[in-house]
Structure formats: structure tokens, C-alpha cells
């Protein structure tokens, strides 16, 4: 076929897809360490004891029988409780690649099964496209927001997922664009949803629903101190040397400003405090009082111009002195500590 002929580009794209798909290529299986998996789950998620115990049981069965057709886990819970990150932890524990497919708002069956190649601009479905990107046939595939699918004149995606999640049928999954049976039995499917009621009963029957409850204020406090505050400080270029948020202030934010089951709103409020601190750090005056630690710098220019308890402008840099040494010497020793007045100024005053 010549490049000038009609259908050349579409035929070439189809053949390239056939050659790029991982028909037999799989991730190398390693010996599963349940203790390491438990430690990773504990480090990534606080609480959720029953949920993590069920995941460890699932991994134990996979260790004893790697080719076992385990159930499709469906994490159901309010937003921000860690459903998506749990699926990522499962992939890390199994040492497999992770691919996420968002099903929120999907109403076209072709998003699952693909378009037929007779249509102009036809493409494969999201499942086949995801497998092409990870380049292995046994990843952990997350079907995110599976309760947000809808149906219209273009078909019902939830009905198309029946074949995908059925171990007896997904051996020969037929994508309309591919038009060749593809084996999905090696893929580990994990689904997430906010509510189980919108999921059609036939689809819900193919999954094992695991409820994730909301966090208590005590659990939110532990999550904030262990995970959220270090992450927020790192995202805003700060550290504990510049900003400190006491436990009492975190409790105040939880009680007054975050009335939710998850921790996303709590993280947004902590980020607002970090942004306010970043402004103060960025706009601070470059005149810093000298401390006793300056005695370590001994250059003629400094000895002549610096006196104890004097002030120095950081813009004046003597020759032969490393800039990093000066910045480390004059670093502010008193970090900004968040108090109730700063919380009310940044987040607003809320009447209790």
C-alpha cells in the first residue's frame, strides 16, 4: 500500500497498535513480602485497619496461588479517604505497574470497547489504550469513579464492563477497534466509588465491596501531623525551620473549618496557611541581626565592618566567601508559629 492511497494512515495506526500491545509481555513476578506490604500500607494510610487487613488477605492468596482468580475489590467511601491511593499501594506491594482509568461522566460504550474501524477517527477503548501505555499484560488497573458512569443513545458503559470484570469472559475480551480477542485475565482490577447504590446490580455482583468509613477528628489530627503538613511544606518550598503548625492549631482547623469525612479540605486549609507563610518568608527584610554564630566567619572585610548585635545587609557579599556559607550563617532561627490570630486572618472568622 502506497502512502498516497486512501486508508493508509488508519491501516498503519491499526498495525502499529497490534505490534505495540503486550500480548505476552508481563511484569516479572517477585516473591511477595506480606510484612513489607503491611508496612507500606501503614506508612501510606493511617487507620483503616479492617480495610488493610482485607488487602493483606487478598495478597496472601495471590502469594499462595499466583494464578488464582481473586475477586475484584471495590472501595466505596466518601471523597478524600484514600481509595485511589490504596489501589496504588496494592500495585506497589505486588511490584506491578499501575494504570488508572477514570470513568466519571463516561456515557459512551465505545470508551470501553472502542470504535469500529469503519468510523473516521476511530480509536481503541480505554482499557486497550491503558495496556498499550504500561506495555505489560498484568498491571493493576484502577477503574476510578465506577459509580459515575451513565447511559444514553450511544450505549451503556456499565454493561460493557460486565465482560471486563467477569473472570470467565475477560479471557477473550473483544475490542471493536482491535477486532481480535485480547486476554484480560492477568489484569488485577480494582474499582472505586463514592456510593454503591448507583452501580447496576449485575455489575455490583461481580465485585467485592469494601466500605471505607470517614475519619474521626483524632485520626485527622494524626494524618495531618504525619502526612499532610510535611507534604504541604515541601510543596510550598518551606520547612519546619520557617513554619510550625502546632497540634492545637490543627485541631482548631479541623473543628471549625473542615467538616468532612476525608482530609482534602483539611489539606487545602493547611496549604492556605503555608502560602501565607511563604509570602512572609519571600518578602522578609534582608537585614538580619547578628548572632554569636557569626564568629565562624573570619574575613578581613567582615571583621572590620561587623560588630556584635549590629546589622548586616545580605546584599553586601565579600569576595572569597561562599554564598551558601553566608546564607546558612544568617538563616532565621525563629520560625513562624501559627497561632489562632493567623488562622482567623487567613481562613476567616467562623462563628461556632
Radius of gyration: 28 Å
Number of helices: 14
Total number of domains: 2
Strand fraction equals 5-15%
Q: Structural class of the secondary structure composition? A: alpha/beta
In CATH, what is the class of the largest domain?
Answer: Alpha Beta
Number of strands: 11
Overall spatial form: elongated
Q: Spans with pLDDT under 50 lasting ≥5 residues?
A: 285-319, 323-330
In round numbers, the mean pLDDT is 82
In which order are the strands of the major sheet placed?
Answer: 2-3-6-1-7
Keywords: Hydrolase, Protease
GO molecular function: ATP binding; ATP hydrolysis activity; ATP-dependent peptidase activity; serine-type endopeptidase activity
Protein name: LON protease peroxisomal-like
GO biological process, one term: protein catabolic process
SSE topology sketch:
Blueprint: H1 8-20, H2 34-44, H3 49-64, E1 72-76, H4 83-94, E2 98-102, H5 110-113, H6 126-134, E3 140-144, H7 157-165, E4 173-174, E5 181-182, E6 188-193, H8 201-204, E7 207-211, H9 217-235, E8 243-244, H10 247-257, H11 264-282, E9 287-289, H12 300-305, E10 311-313, H13 323-329, E11 336-337, H14 340-347
Organism: Trifolium medium
GO molecular function, one term: ATP-dependent peptidase activity
Domain AAA+ ATPase: 69-214
Give a brief rundown of this model:
It holds the Pfam family Lon_lid. Residues 69-214 form the AAA+ ATPase domain. With 352 residues, the chain is α/β, with parallel strands linked by helices.
